[in-house]
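Could someone model adenosine-5'-triphosphate with this protein?
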Amino acid sequence: MLKIENLHASIEEKEILKGLNIEVKPGEVHAIMGPNGAGKSTLSSVIAGREEYEVTEGSIEFNGEEIGEMEADERAHKGIFMSFQYPVEIPGISVTNFIKTAINETRKAQGLEDMPASDMLKKIKEKAELLEIDRKFLSRSLNEGFSGGEKKRNEIFQMAMLEPKLAILDETDSGLDIDALKIVANGVNKLKSKDNAVIVITHYQRLLDYIVPDFVHVLYDGKIVKSGTKELALELEAKGYDWIKQEVTA
Ligand SMILES: Nc1ncnc2c1ncn2[C@@H]1O[C@H](COP(=O)(O)OP(=O)(O)OP(=O)(O)O)[C@@H](O)[C@H]1O
Ligand SMILES: [Mg+2]
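Reply:
Sure, complex below.
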């Protein structure tokens, strides 16, 4: 599904990603961990196509197609979802109206008509129930006065509605409490299927007790320097990143 080879990317002339490789297949959950400033958020932004970043070398293939030069919108329409994609507060636009628009824009890009209102309502109801989101929440203005946990809930709801092929959840900066952690984990687990894939970026080994990843990668100084299974996360927790640093420089 996603195949990244020798990816180099810079921001303001400063190279952040320095030859990164990763492959994600349908049905897989990958966790990316690594010290502050390693390039984790940069990687997610580069995959999603944020313009500030310049890809200087390497390739990003999504379902066999090179997407490195595509606009962010186009990538989203192809089924790439990134959390914090819409962190802005939009007064007067409800959670529901926002997602309706997003879905219909994607359909338009695929040459489809708007989703009939009754289907849309049915889908909203179904997903809200699945994620235990109450109706009042759906009519609130997007992100306006949302708590950290509510922002997470909204993100997971957007993800559930859009049904992306690849979801990238960057949790690093958000200071999640245990409830928000569970919201994210539940959402990911409930939406997991053999056809979609998830990349979770996290500092919290604890999150991985709830979302069991198939692979754990360590991103260090712009590269994936170590990959393993869930146990790698435990090892990192116990040993810290100095251990990785020693291995990399040895
Ligand atoms: N817009 C920017 N302008 C200048 N430097 C940037 C910008 N965005 C990122 N960087 C730099 O790129 C490096 C990697 O940042 P990035 O946010 O990808 O790290 P991270 O692994 O996500 O860290 P954290 O765990 O703290 O979230 C850092 O040194 C950061 O200062
Ligand atoms: Mg980050």
